[in-house]
Amino acid sequence: MKNVEGIILAAGFSRRMEKFKMELSLDGENILERCIEGMENVCDQIIVVSGHHFERIQKITSNLPNVKTVVNKNYERGMFSSIRRGVREIKADRFFIIPGDQPLVKIETYKKMLEIDSDIVSPRCNGKKGHPILFKSKLIKEILKMSDDEILRDFIHKINDYKLDVDDVGIHLDVDTLEDYKKLQKYYNEEYCER
Prior knowledge:
Layout: E1 4-10, E2 25-26, E3 29-30, H1 31-40, E4 45-50, H2 54-61, E5 67-71, H3 79-87, E6 94-99, H4 107-114, E7 120-125, E8 128-129, E9 133-136, H5 140-145, H6 152-159, E10 162-165, H7 178-193
Parallel strand pairs: 1-4, 1-6, 4-5, 7-10
Antiparallel strand pairs: 2-3, 6-9, 7-8, 7-9
């Protein structure tokens, strides 16, 4: 057993996109499926936290092995409310957290992060931190003491994370706008299709 789980945050509104971004296509699969694929080889279970468009998320995840979809009824309060909902499901010693619109993190990044024995591990590329973030489960009680309105970054600064340098631009690539989506597609085509 790997004794590692993953939390994918997929509860938001996709307000700045014309379409629901979890369903956007990336070479025949949607963004959420790609995000799940990125971590499935290093996690015993993946918890997808949904809220807005729960039925559409569940349709994507229903037939995927070792994936559990849960509802955050407070998703309108922001991302930290989804984190708090997700950590309630964690049973492993460690867990990753990643937004569902970051589908191109390399498997090597996940594996390198797991080699580090620290309470929190953050990947860093070209001097800038990104996602996923790896936590030890002993921190769950502290996370649950915080309010839905707080920010994960503040919690990480309080604990002091280990910053792991990786060669992976994918830790920065999320999809908030149509322009972001075009950048993601371009990077995918260059990194994965032209080799």
